[in-house]
Amino acid sequence: MSSPPPAIDFVRYSGRRGVYWIRHAYTMLSAQRARWLLLLLIYYPLLGFIDLVPFVGQLAVPLLKPVFAVGFLAAAWAQERGEAPEPRHLFKGFRANLWALLLLGAFLLVGLTVAVFGSALVDGGKLIGFLTNPPAPPSISADGGTGAAAATDGSEAEIVLSDPRVQAGMLFAVACGLPVVMALWFAPALVVFQDCSARQALATSLRAALANWRPIAVYGLLLFFWGGVVPGIAAALIATAAPKSLAFVIALLALFPYVLLFTATLHISDYVAYRDIFHAGEEGAAAPADEK
Fold it and tell me: pTM of this prediction?
């Protein structure tokens, strides 16, 4: 009978360490801003293209997310050693423990599906019904208006989402999905940097995340502020000051660069947090599996 794999050590931090993860990630982004933005402009259109593939696209995207996550980890690993992030880094996951990474993707798909369906225990299936059969998009009439049908659709969506039971169901789904996210957060890095199996990576990631719930809570609040509150306030100010017909276009043009920078920082922070928790005090994380 084979012995279980050795436990992987990690560090526990106080809450303010979550500030460091974002600050250091932004520092790394500032040093190679154009390179990181290029990776995003390749990655997200590629995901969108995969999502459009009939029958398999919507299943393939969550399966491949941990694989592509390794690409951003590899790019950050390379930058830490004086190299520049490059598009080829995005595909590192296809050459580093691919099967284990696909198992992580399957865990993501099943875990989030179970979390969403769990909302039915609270709202009787209203949220699932809304997600599987959403109101039709507003139709444009001949005179350029949206017509009564659009108003009805909009009202229907507002009625469903303002239902206290649906809101409670959404919160319950988030609570159910949180352990899934925590188990997956460090798992791709553990697979490629420390040669863990999918099972060991998920278990270790969950233990490390629970042990570091304070910095993770601070990190999450900062992400909510910079990713939700700040752009929300900016969009509201633009909507107030700009002509109504141009407000959306102006907000899109003004906030798109900000959203790109925020998203790039978010991807880099995954590596920073992993590196800080599992390789504290070391020269650097071990090389990805295909570079050992």
Answer: 0.85
